[in-house]
Design goal:
three-stranded mixed beta sheet; four-stranded mixed beta sheet; 10 strands; Zincin-like; alpha/beta
Length: 380
């Protein structure tokens, strides 16, 4: 109850909406996930909603009910349906499309969204192609593995640029990475920077309440098209798993402060991996053609991303602004590192090849890459 009051005030501040706080009630209904009762100025949120879904879902349902409150108290409308006035209120609060339906129908939409099935058939095929190329990158042949990873990056770039150039109606989404911690580590920020520079997504460091622990944790949000978000999430978990595995095998080599040694090693690995990606991206294609890493046959002209074919993704920019209207960039002091440990990690990172890792498996949801900026979402 206390957190709902906090979230209500925060939402009003973020979107510059002036409303008096309502009475909050935790209901036991299973059919209505939320409701607004104008006569008593009450917002009801279902206990089922809080207990079954993440707090991020609860926040979107809360926004839905605040939109009803706006209809009553700002627009002075007695309309209870989800019509034009309600849609206008939702626009003011950045309520996602899938959370704008009547509460009775909302649970089906939520199950659909959290299941990761939003990608189109074409998008799912694209993800499958990328993952097959990344799987080929496990090859013991270093040249073959590097070429497979390079082709995967080229495929991702071509797919996204084509979508932007033909001005398709791209649907955007987000995924939250929540490690249940109070801070974002330096190595996590570096992973985000890699996603920013090599994959078509935006990233925001934010925060999320955990009603079971009664604590607020720092989170990483990846925003972009359904396909890009899926691949970026995959890559995040792949790199984090690689760091843990490499440190576990090599930690006994280092005798300094354990925390600083591990941080130095992690940051060195990520810097080396970034260098490898840059080298692959900047390497000029031989004779304008590439070879299939599987059968060695010549393919069409090798693709190279140049400034002339970069198209500004204004749709994604607008989506991020809708979700985070008061973003701000923060500068941070670099962490303390051991130079020798960092340099050893740097060389190790240059040998990492992106391949299929262990990630959460869903029926049709996969994971993906893209260029972006790293932001931080702060409390007022």
């Amino acid at each position: 109850m206390k957190q709902l009051h906090v979230e209500f005030s925060d939402i009003c501040w973020q979107y510059n909406i002036h409303l008096l706080p309502p009475v909050f009630e935790i209901s036991q209904t299973e059919r209505q996930l939320g409701s607004w009762v104008a006569d008593t100025r009450t917002i009801r949120i279902s206990f089922l909603l809080i207990s079954r879904y993440s707090w991020a879902v609860t926040l979107n349902v809360l926004k839905h009910e605040i939109a009803h409150q706006i209809c009553s108290e700002i627009f002075q409308s007695k309309e209870t349906a989800h019509g034009e006035i309600f849609s206008k209120a939702c626009d003011l609060l950045g309520v996602p499309e899938e959370y704008r339906r009547a509460s009775g129908d909302l649970s089906e939409d939520i199950d659909y969204v959290v299941s990761g099935k939003q990608s189109t058939l074409q998008g799912r095929r694209f993800i499958d192609k990328v993952e097959k190329l990344l799987a080929l990158a496990q090859s013991a042949n270093e040249n073959e593995a590097a070429l497979a990873m390079q082709k995967a990056n080229e495929l991702i770039e071509k797919y996204n640029i084509k979508q932007l150039e033909v001005d398709q109606d791209i649907k955007y989404t987000y995924v939250i990475i929540n490690k249940k911690k109070k801070r974002i580590e330096a190595y996590q920020r570096q992973i985000c920077a890699i996603l920013r520079d090599f994959f078509f997504v935006k990233i925001v460091t934010s925060y999320l309440y955990d009603p079971f622990a009664d604590q607020t944790h720092k989170t990483i949000e990846i925003l972009g098209s359904h396909e890009n978000v899926a691949i970026a999430e995959y890559c995040y978990h792949f790199l984090e798993n690689q760091l843990l595995s490499l440190w576990s095998r090599n930690r006994r080599k280092y005798t300094g402060s354990a925390g600083t040694e591990k941080n130095s090693y992690y940051l060195g690995i990520l810097s080396g991996f970034r260098t490898k990606l840059l080298e692959q991206k900047e390497k000029p294609p031989k004779e304008g053609r590439g070879k299939n890493p599987k059968d060695g046959k010549k393919q069409g002209p090798a693709y190279s991303l140049t400034p002339s074919n970069l198209v500004e993704n204004t749709g994604l920019h607008d989506y991020v602004e809708m979700k985070f209207p008061r973003l701000r960039k923060l500068s941070r002091q670099g962490p303390k590192i051991y130079k020798s440990t960092y340099e050893e990690g740097l060389e190790t990172g240059k040998k990492i090849t992106l391949h299929k890792g262990v990630v959460r498996k869903e029926e049709n949801g996969r994971k993906l890459l893209i260029p972006m900026e790293v932001y931080s979402w702060k409390l007022p």
